[in-house]
Amino acid sequence: MKPFGKPAAVALAALLTLTACGGGGEATPAAQGPQPLRMTIWTSNEAHLKLFNEIAAEYRKTRPDIGEIKFDPIPFENYTTTLTTQIAGGNAPDLAWILESSAPDFVSSGALAPLDDTLSTAQGYEFGDLTPSAVKLWQNGGKLYAYPFSTSPFGVFVNTDLLKKAGQKTPAEMIEDGTWTWEKVAAQNAAVASKTGKAGMVVRDFDYKGWDNLASVWGGWGARAWSEDGRTCGFDSPEMVEAMTFLHRSIFTDKAFPGPGTTADFFAGDSAMTITQISRASLLQDAKFGWDLVPLPAGPRGEYSVIGQAGLGVLKKSPNAAAATDFLAFFTNPANSAKLAAYFPPPRASQLTADTMAKSNPLLKPGQLQKVVISGIEKGVVKPNHTGQAELSQTVRAALDPLWQPGADVKAVLAGVCAKIQPMLGA
User: Phi and psi for 231 in degrees, rounded to 5?
Assistant: First the structure.
C-alpha cells in the first residue's frame, strides 16, 4: 500500500500561511441580490441531506437575501485534503465540517470566524447549554471557532443472526456474564469467519489507511498515539505494542478481522460486527437480519470509550461570512439540534439524555443510547488530533504499512513509527 502523497500537508501549510499573514486579501463584499451559501460535508447519506435541505428551506423563508444553500459532499477519505486545497486555491466554502483530527490546525490558524457573539445573542439559542467538554477542542483564546455538532462515541453494531449461526453468544449475554472483552470477541469473530464464510469484526473507515480509527481498539490497552501534551510518541509504548500485537494476531492468524484488500459491509450483512458511530444506524432501516448496538469490548485496562467529534465552522474569508454565521446559528439552534440528534449526538446538555435522543433515533432503544452514547461521552477520549495532523497522519500511515502483512515484527514497526514522527511532535 502506498502512503498519501504531500497534497494534504502542503495545502494545509498554504492555508496557515495565507491566514496568518493575511495573504489572499480580505473577504470582498457580497454582490447585490440573494447570496448563495455553500457548506462542505463528508456525508452523502440521503436521510442526512434531506434533513439539511429541510432546515435550509425553513431558514430561507425569512431570509430573502439568501439564495441557494448548497450542501457539498466530499468523500470522507480525502475530505481535509480537498477542503484545504479549496481554501488555499481561493475557492473556500462559506461553511465547512471539520474533523477532530484537523481541529487544532483550523482553530489556531485564523481561517475560521469566531462564533461567540452571534451564538450568544441569537434569540432562543441557549448558548450556555453547550457543554464545556464538547466545545473545548474548538476553542482558542477563549473564543469558539466551530460548533461541535457531533460528539459521538464509537460503538459496536452486531449481526446477532450471524453469531447464532456460528453458535456464539449474543453481546447482551456476554455483557451480562462479564465476558464482553476483546479476547472473547475476537474469538467469536474468528468463529463466524470460519463457520459462515462471512467476515468477523470490521473497523469501519479504517481499511488499512485511516489508522486513527484503531484508537477504538487500542484504547482498551490504555495506549495513545502520543502523550496528552502531544510532545511524546506513544506508538512504541508497551501498551501499544501489546494492543497492536493482539490486532495483528487477530487479523493474520485468527482471521477475526478481514485482512488488507478485503471489503466487507456490515450493513449489507457481510460481517458479524463493525465499530462505528450511531450516525450509521440509518443504514439498518431495511436490515434483513437481527442486530444490536453495544459498547466497545473491555480491554486489559477495563472498560473505555473513544469519541469522534465534528465541528461546523465559518470560513473567515468567505464574502458571505456574516450570513453564513447567521445560518450556522439557525442550523444549530435548540430545535434543529434536536433534529440533527437523529444522526449526530448533540453538544447540548439538555438534549444529552437517552429518552430525548430516542425520540429522534427510532431505530435505537433508550438502553442502547444510554450505554453507548451517553455513558460513552462521559468517559470518552477523543480520537488522535494534533497540530500539523495532515503531515503527521500520512507519516504514521506510511510507517505502519509494514505492519499489515503476515510475519511483521510489531515492536520494530512501532519503533519505526516513533522514529519518524517524534521530530514532528515538537519535543
Answer: -105, -15
Distance CA 107, CA 233 (A): 23
- Residue identified by cell 451517553 is 374
Amino acid 334: pLDDT: 97
> What is the C-alpha to C-alpha distance for residues 425 and 372, in angstroms, rounded to an integer?
32
What separation in angstroms does the CA of 298 have from each of 24, 188, 193?
50, 15, 22
Angle between helix 410-421 and 389-400 (nearest 10): 150
**Other C-beta atoms within 10 Å of 35: how many?**
18
Residue 23 CB neighbours (<10 A): 10
For 113-145, the DSSP string reads ---HHHHHHSTT--GGGB-HHHHGGGEETTEE-
101 touches 388 (CB < 8 A): no
Segment among 27-36, 171-180, 247-256, 346-355 with least mean pLDDT: 27-36
Alpha-carbon separation of residue 323 from 37, 69, 83, 217, 326 (angstroms): 8, 11, 20, 42, 5
Each residue of 88-133: pLDDT tens digit?
A: 898 999 999 999 989 999 999 999 999 999 999 999 999 999 999 8
Residue type, 223: A
Q: How many residues does the chain have?
A: 427
Q: Are strands 306-314 and 381-382 parallel, antiparallel or unpaired?
A: parallel
DSSP designation for 267: G
